[in-house]
Design brief:
Blueprint (H helix, E strand, L loop, with lengths): L4 E5 L4 H13 L3 E7 L6 H4 L4 E3 L2 H6 L5 E4 L6 H10 L3 E5 L6 H13 L4 E4 L6 H12 L5 E9 L9 H4 L7 H17 L4 E7 L10 E8 L3 E8 L9 E5 L2 E5 L5 H6 L18 E6 L5 E6 L7 H13 L7 H12 L6
Parallel strand pairs: 1-2, 1-4, 2-3, 4-5, 5-6, 7-10
Antiparallel strand pairs: 7-11, 8-9, 9-10, 11-12, 12-13, 13-14
Helix pairs in contact: 4-5, 5-11, 8-11
Length: 342
């Protein structure tokens, strides 16, 4: 059996508590050694054996730690990634990986120079709703795909408490925060677009950053993809709509993993990632005789754990990480591009 990867998280807020800690704790390929907690110490209430480091230097100077998970505010990702690599650690970095293509390239290049693994955490590739959508698109049942609509909406008219998300600093605003998920999904299926146009707006009172974003991506064969995200949608429409020459597929964003983690479910429990009944995708097809059929398409379980298994395979067996560098660079290029001026 391979030696577990000794791992540290760089924060224990929501992402550390929900999206990283439970997985590196139960996956046998990891040894969850420590968490950086500058002020409030929370991790030992959940994991008494885990070390709570006071400073980043303590984490990076620990010779046992092999993997550092950079789950800190977005504007720190580049600096902390650079420092971790220079300390000889492999890194798993939350989205957005970097504010700019130039900074993203710097970190990937530094990882190659130092023979260290640079991996980007895009957990929504491993959600139940995305998996069934990808499979439906690739099945050919819809014929030639004409348009894809992906939405990620919330209703939060107030200015949030997270300063790094609400202050006009690098990688702030809703496009970097939420549209980054949707762009990664599009790029995962379709690759680089031929062209795109990005629109951002500010609607909330006293907001300093974009709280609405819309990106129209054009792909070969007249395929149009529309990515939209907003903080002012009181009645969200389905998050996934796909239209093709032979039919349509409609699916709500309804992956259960986050809710289950909040409720205290562990990612190695049998029902983890299973969608609720009644949340199936709706596949409507028209045959050559003009007859319509409607089929409910269930999802397989969401599996964030597959991302962590990929981390193990990348570090221990030199496997290619599923979120490829080329895909990250396309995504960052769109995120940092100048919005269309009206």
């Amino acid at each position: 059996m391979q030696k577990p990867i000794v791992t540290a998280l760089l924060s224990y807020g929501m992402s550390g508590k929900l999206f990283h800690g439970p997985f590196v704790h139960v996956h046998p390929g990891f040894h969850f050694k420590g968490v950086l907690e500058h002020n409030t110490k929370k991790v030992n209430a959940d994991y008494p054996e885990v070390i709570s480091y006071d400073t980043l230097e303590e984490v990076l100077n620990d010779p046992e730690i092999e993997l550092v998970i950079v789950n800190t505010p977005s504007n720190t990702h580049v600096d902390y990634s650079r420092r971790a690599l220079m300390a000889g650690k492999d890194i798993l970095v939350e989205k957005p990986f970097a504010p700019t293509v130039a900074e993203a390239k710097e970190i990937f290049d530094l990882g190659r120079k130092l023979n260290r693994k640079v991996m980007v955490y895009q957990n929504r590739r491993f959600s139940s709703d995305f998996e069934v959508t990808k499979n439906t698109i690739n099945s050919g049942k819809l014929g030639q795909i004409i348009e894809i609509h992906l939405r990620y909406d919330r209703y939060r008219p107030e200015i949030g408490p997270k300063v790094f998300k609400e202050t006009p600093i690098p990688a702030s605003g809703i496009v970097y925060d939420l549209a980054a998920h949707l762009l990664d999904q599009v790029i995962c299926i379709l690759g680089e677009p031929l062209s795109y146009r990005k629109v951002t707006r500010i609607y909330r009172k006293n907001s300093q950053v974009d709280d609405y974003g819309h990106i129209h991506l054009i792909y070969p064969n007249q395929l149009n993809v529309f990515v939209t995200t907003s903080l002012l949608v009181a009645d969200p429409p389905p998050g996934i709509i796909v239209h093709g020459t032979k039919g349509s597929f409609v699916k709500a964003f309804c992956d259960k993993q986050e809710d289950q983690l909040i409720a205290g479910m562990k990612p190695d429990e049998p029902d983890f990632g299973e969608e609720d009944q009644g949340k199936e995708g709706r596949l409507t097809l028209i045959n050559d005789q003009g007859e319509k059929t409607v089929e409910l398409v269930p999802s397989t379980n969401g599996k964030y754990m597959d991302l962590f298994e990929s981390v193990v395979q990348t570090i221990r067996n030199d496997a290619e990480f599923p979120v490829k560098e080329s895909e990250v660079m396309i995504q960052i290029g769109i995120l940092e591009s100048e919005p269309f001026k009206v």
